[in-house]
Recover the amino acids of this structure.
């Protein structure tokens, strides 16, 4: 077997490559209507399609990994990333670009699968620190990738970022195939295709309502139909999953108190993270006359980037700390650090260095919080359910980020003024966004305090409530 350090390094690179996909189009998002000769509502699908694919594929790929081999499914997802990147790079218009971005979004399932692989193949003494590192890559890749994509789109043709993504995907595919061993742990049974379809339809309906409600109108019939329809489908899906012998997701495991509360905290943590990703770069790049700092997108990205570096630095430390104080307290510390970041910004946000300090605190909070969540999950589920359970946890994080993108985007759009015919957010809009981030972190802290002390999954049958 390859050295365990090499396995960890390869899975960390794979994790960073998945989160990088979400920042690829950020530098050109406002220019897409002109670049693609399409309406702003149509170009919004370039982002929305990636979020939908990530949310749907993450829990599904976790179950597929449990049944057919986690390494095999990782390779398939990375292959979809390469295919989607090539399609996007060659896209002559918006339709093929959306198709490519959808395929790119599917690769998000690599992170929970990687976490499950670590539990299967690593020595027990290295599992916590390795899981902390892989989990934190969800924030690291985005923070480090944003300035790179901004630099490329400023200096070269925007299609080049997708060729870069394709090259990154090929590199990851080769490394995983050569170094990561296949786990011998498999879950027997038949795959739940009905459950897969129900989960996909329900999630797409709800996420469409959340992500497009600001443009369609929150009270518009289409928004209400998507949201209510998605909720009804998910309720029917849950009824079916509880009654089928071989469900896509064992909801009795997901309903156990430690798992359920951790997933609820994950929504709040995901919201707190993405609220910072939406608000801080914008206020840094906003013109001075509008209350911003007037930085270029590359410069603004460099101010945000240290958050990712901090996540990477604190992740191994988080694993050792969790072994000492427990993942519950580590998650609480992460929530407190996020509260400190937003509180600091609300008090002091007149200099660039102050926003840099806030982003460093964001990095500490996400580094601790994202490290703790999969540990809490895996200490509460049977080993045969790790892929699906981690996939579900990643889904809840994605739900938090999607809600943050919609809500913070709506707030900044509502509190805006026209400058040279272009609507730009006001300081009031940014302050409200920071308050929302603070509230989300507070919710994560309160929920965390109610997570019970760990009891090993083997001590209790998964079908019984905790």
């Amino acid at each position: 077997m390859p050295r365990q350090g090499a396995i960890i390094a390869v899975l960390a690179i794979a994790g960073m490559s998945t989160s990088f996909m979400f920042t690829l189009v950020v530098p050109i998002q406002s220019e897409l209507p002109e670049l693609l000769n399409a309406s702003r509502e149509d170009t919004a699908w370039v982002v929305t399609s990636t979020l939908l694919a990530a949310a749907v594929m993450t829990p599904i790929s976790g179950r597929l990994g449990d049944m057919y081999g986690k390494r095999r499914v990782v390779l398939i997802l990375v292959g979809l990333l390469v295919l989607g990147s090539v399609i996007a790079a060659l896209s002559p218009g918006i339709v093929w670009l959306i198709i490519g971005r959808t395929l790119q979004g599917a690769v998000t399932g690599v992170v929970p699968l990687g976490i499950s692989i670590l539990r299967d193949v690593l020595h027990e003494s290295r599992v916590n620190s390795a899981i902390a590192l892989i989990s934190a890559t969800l924030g690291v890749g985005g923070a480090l990738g944003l300035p790179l994509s901004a630099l490329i789109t400023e200096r070269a043709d925007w299609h080049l970022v997708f060729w870069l993504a394709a090259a990154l995907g090929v590199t990851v595919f080769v490394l995983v195939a050569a170094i990561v061993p296949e786990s011998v742990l498999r879950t027997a049974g038949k795959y739940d295709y009905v459950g897969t379809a129900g989960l996909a339809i329900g999630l797409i309906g709800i996420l469409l309502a959340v992500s497009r409600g600001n443009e369609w109108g929150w009270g518009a019939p289409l928004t209400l139909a998507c949201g209510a329809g998605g909720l009804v489908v998910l309720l029917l899906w849950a009824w079916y999953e509880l009654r089928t012998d071989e469900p896509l997701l064992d909801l009795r495991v997901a309903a156990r108190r430690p798992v359920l509360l951790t997933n609820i905290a994950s929504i709040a943590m995901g919201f707190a993270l993405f609220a910072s990703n939406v608000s801080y770069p914008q206020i840094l790049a906003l013109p001075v006359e509008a209350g911003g700092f007037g930085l270029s997108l590359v410069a603004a990205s460099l101010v945000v980037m240290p958050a990712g570096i901090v996540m990477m630095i604190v992740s191994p430390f988080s694993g050792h700390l969790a072994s000492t104080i427990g993942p519950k307290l580590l998650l609480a510390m992460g929530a407190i650090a996020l509260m400190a970041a937003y509180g600091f910004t609300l008090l002091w946000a007149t200099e660039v260095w102050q926003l840099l300090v806030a982003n460093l605190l964001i990095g500490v909070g996400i580094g601790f919080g994202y490290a703790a969540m999969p540990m809490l999950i895996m200490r509460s589920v049977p080993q045969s359910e790790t892929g699906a359970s981690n996939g579900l946890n990643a889904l809840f994080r994605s739900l938090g980020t999607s809600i943050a993108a919609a809500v913070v985007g709506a707030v900044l759009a509502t509190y805006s003024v026209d400058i040279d015919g272009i609507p730009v957010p006001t300081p009031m809009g940014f302050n409200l966004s920071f308050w929302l981030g603070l509230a989300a972190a507070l919710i994560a802290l309160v929920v965390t305090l109610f997570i019970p002390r760990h009891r090993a999954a083997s001590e209790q049958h998964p079908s019984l409530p905790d």
